[in-house]
Amino acid sequence: MSVNLKIAIQKSGRLHDDSISLLKDCGIDIKNGVNRLMVEAENFPLSVFFLRDDDIPQYVEDKVVDLGIVGENVLFEKQKDAVVVEKLGFGKCRLSVAVPKVEEYTGPAFLNHKTIATSYPVLVQHYLQQHQLTAEIHEISGSVEIAPGIGLSDAIVDLVSSGSTLFMNGLKEVEVILKSEAVMVKHQDLHPAQQQLLDKLLFRIRSVKKARKNKYILLNAPNHNLENIVALLPGIKSPTVLPLAQSGWSSVHSVVNENDFWDLIEKLKIAGAEGILVVPIEKMIV
Ligand code: ATP
Ligand code: ZN
Known about the structure:
The protein is of the alpha/beta class. Helices cover 27% and strands 32% of the residues.
């Protein structure tokens, strides 16, 4: 029997496109799966199942699929037997407590003996216990942010990314219960040959993640300031320096982290660098 892995990803919604892009960037060809439950990858022994995100932890626990891509928020709420194998760096959001803007909020004790509307009763209960508080939890499945406005609850616990939905509903974010991102999970009983396949996939995912965090930078440096410029650049080993046809100048190549990027450009310009080019990296194997 040929070895194969089954992976569940969100059918549609906030994690769908990024999950597909990640697999594609790993060189896995998936035909458009709109309106299909499952598609087979063309060039990797992987079947991709399209499901509601809430169902993914259960499908993994039941071993209907071997892997899943799901938000930590959903994974922790569902409490199923699924093991995180890799954080994926997308789908970032926070699960937060929000209260009406007009309330004077002084700390978690505000929630004591109040009502809280949420789609995350397990995580909220856990948070209350941690802070030794009691509150009534109203579980609702959508539009949690309107609950205080219609008199259903005193506070909410919901996912937030920018905070604009809260603001529009007269609420303010006061506590972060959980910081979440998309993760890849597996069940505990992968066949050794399947684990080998997963390792191969993980190797690719890690090189894609690294590449996304880094940029390749090329610039021209006046030789009299070359040492200073090279000292500013990290590189994988050290920057590459090549002579330019024009005497007195060199071409310098390096890899830089996206986070330090703008600061670095400023410093390079001050040090006399010219013709700075920045290009994305597709894969990074170090
Ligand atoms: P489904 O139909 O699959 O149940 P859904 O409506 O529950 O979809 P989405 O709104 O598409 O879910 O969100 C899926 C996941 O995306 C969330 O569980 C969370 O991990 C992540 N996410 C990232 N940012 C946000 C955000 N601002 N609001 C909600 N979810 C976010
Ligand atoms: Zn959902």
